[in-house]
Specification:
CATH architecture: 3-Layer(aba) Sandwich
GO biological process, one term: response to antibiotic
Low-confidence stretches: 4-28
Helix content: 25-40%
GO molecular function: beta-lactamase activity
CATH class: Alpha Beta
Protein name: Serine hydrolase
Keywords: Hydrolase
Radius of gyration: 19 Å
Pfam families: Beta-lactamase2
Oligomer: single chain
Length: 302
């Protein structure tokens, strides 16, 4: 496990040094605690990968094995959302297109549509469900409508070589199925989320639509647990903080990619950890490590 150089946080006086703020000087967060937390996980057998960059300059603030390709569970659904948004912009589909769920789409775990009576929903409502609750049923219906090949082609057009949505969501994966829902590298995912936030993914309109969807995400259990935002209501800025993110959870996998804007600066980040999920304490340690990195991010943007 290797890390990029860590810059020590400069001390801040109680007065806040408003002159420095107006000059645009940044107060560097100290990511040493985050690196230490990931190192402990690696020593315990976990595979870890992380990257944090300044959104404006693109400068790497924190990097641990960010080139490594790891399972990212539902984080790869962001590629589906980009394809849906691009189709809306290209007028291949309209936001009012009704899509029916079929027996082959049914799957358990994440999402709320499986508990609702509506047999059909508009395309954009399904995209919102995917972003807000990582809805597996909505994901499968959208994938059936647009095709996995189109999502892969969209990822390739964005220059992604280590990041992909590999399959539909399945309750069980057989020998002929992809072993993971999605994979990715922290380097590529961080850059992708930075491009979405800056309006550079496909187009400004597509990026804006995907950003609006991602801002609905109710899962703030990982890195974003450090930001103290309301999981069910953080679309608007709260104490100067604005978040868009996508998370992924699977047995032995926790992954999160996102963008946090703050009163002083903004960052894009990805943290992925693959671990042996055999005892609850290991899972708790993973989530605590992700939160520790989130604390470093929060200190940087505030």
């Amino acid at each position: 496990m290797t890390a990029a150089p860590v810059e020590t946080r400069r001390s801040r006086s109680r007065s806040g040094d408003e002159h420095a703020r107006h000059r645009g000087d940044a107060v560097r967060a100290d990511f040493t605690d985050g690196f230490t937390a990931l190192a402990h996980l690696a020593l315990d057998g976990a595979q870890v990968s992380a990257r944090v960059i300044d959104l404006l300059s693109g400068k790497a603030l924190f990097s641990v094995d960010d080139h490594v390709v790891l399972p990212t569970a539902s984080v790869g659904k962001v590629l589906l959302l980009l394809e849906i948004a691009a189709r809306l912009e290209e007028q291949v589909n309209t936001r009012f297109d009704l899509l029916d769920r079929a027996p082959e789409d049914l799957v358990s775990d994440a999402g709320v549509w499986q508990y609702l009576h509506a047999p059909s929903l508009p395309l954009t409502d399904l995209a919102a469900l995917v972003a807000a609750t990582s809805d597996n049923l909505a994901t499968n219906v959208l994938l059936r409508a647009v095709g996995l090949d189109a999502v892969r082609a969209r990822a390739e057009s964005l220059g992604l070589k280590r990041t992909a949505l590999l399959d539909r969501v399945r309750d069980r994966r057989g020998p002929d199925d992809a072993p993971q829902l999605s994979v990715g590298s922290a380097a590529e995912l961080t850059t992708l989320f930075a491009r979405i936030a800056r309006g550079e993914a496909v187009s400004r309109a597509v990026s804006s639509r995907v950003s609006d969807w991602l801002a609905l995400n109710a899962d703030l259990s990982m890195v974003a647990s450090a930001f103290a935002l309301d999981p069910l209501s953080h679309v608007r800025s709260d104490h100067g903080l604005s978040l868009l993110n996508k998370t992924g959870s699977a047995p032995g996998v926790r992954s999160e990619a996102g963008v946090l804007r703050g009163p002083r600066s903004s960052v894009a980040y990805t943290v992925t950890i693959e671990f042996v999920d055999d005892v609850h304490t290991r899972r708790l340690a993973v989530l605590q490590a992700m939160r520790t990195i989130g604390i470093g991010i929060l200190e940087y943007v505030c």
